[in-house]
Amino acid sequence: MFNEKNMKRLTLILLALLIIGLGIKFKDKFSKNTSSSTNEIVAIKASNVQSISFFPKENGEKFQIVRQDNYWLIKTGDIKVQADAYTVHELLLQLELLKPKELVTKSKKEWEKYEVTEALGTRIVINEGKKPLADIILGNFLFDKKTNKITSYVRNTNEKQVYAVDGYLSMMFTRGAKSFRDNSVLLGNPEQWNKLTFKYPADSSFTLSRINNTWSCESKTCNNVKVEEFFSKVRMLTTTKFEDSIVIASDKAADYQLTIEGTNFEPIIIEGFFIDNILITKSSINKKNLFNSSKIKRVLFVNKEEFIIK
Questions:
Q1: Of all helices (H) and strands (E), which one includes residue 172?
Q2: pLDDT tens for residues 139-195?
Q3: CA gap 80, 289 in Å, rounded
Q4: Where are the domains of the chain?
Q5: Which residues of 96-106 are buried (b: 16+ CB within 10 A; e: fewer)?
């Protein structure tokens, strides 16, 4: 049997083992937290993001990209226009996959060197509703001619550490609001198109129809080569000539209209409105943007003589 002295010794041994065990557990937990913080700059899931706010350096214009229904919209002051969904997706994917390559400094004195101050860098704030998911400052970037690799520098706004990351993150996020706009007028697959209806002033309207892989126009056989040439020009029609100063009333009739119908897609409608002798265009695939481009009328709203075999 244990005497009182042995009991005390056993108690001390058990207590020591308990302290060692707790110390190991604390150390493991601390190590995990430390590892997590150095392997991750931001932790976001693209599908949860509702808004991205951009605060450019110096006198750059502030703007915001917000999710609304099935669209991403760019808000600049009181103006809301449609953003390119693919570009926004790429931005969020870059942030979701963002990993530090190297911790370059912990010193606030070196922030200017990497341009990660709020005056020199671009601040990006990402929210889910009103809940902040990330708040970072993107600094300058470095191109290594030997390896042909680009390194960007980034800092969490509320932290001192500056990290180097692979890629052109700084370049992607430091563009102006206009570069994120959806510049699509028409995007489609001509193989799915069966009917194109051109509505013009006076008697110049006409319809292109496909029957057994042969195109006809007003009961006249078309030159299929000419039709294919037209399709190649308009199937991915874009322009950066945006028009933000004009509002078109919902009940205003279009002066020019092209409706494209076919299989496995909703009809595409592109309308042109003469306002002060300028043709302003809007498209059903890009409802929040208007365009002011003479190219659209020249390329898209063509005459039927373009197609008919003479």
A1: helix 169-173
A2: 998 888 888 888 999 999 999 999 999 887 877 888 889 999 999 999 999 999 999
A3: 9
A4: 46-177, 184-306
A5: eebebeeebbe
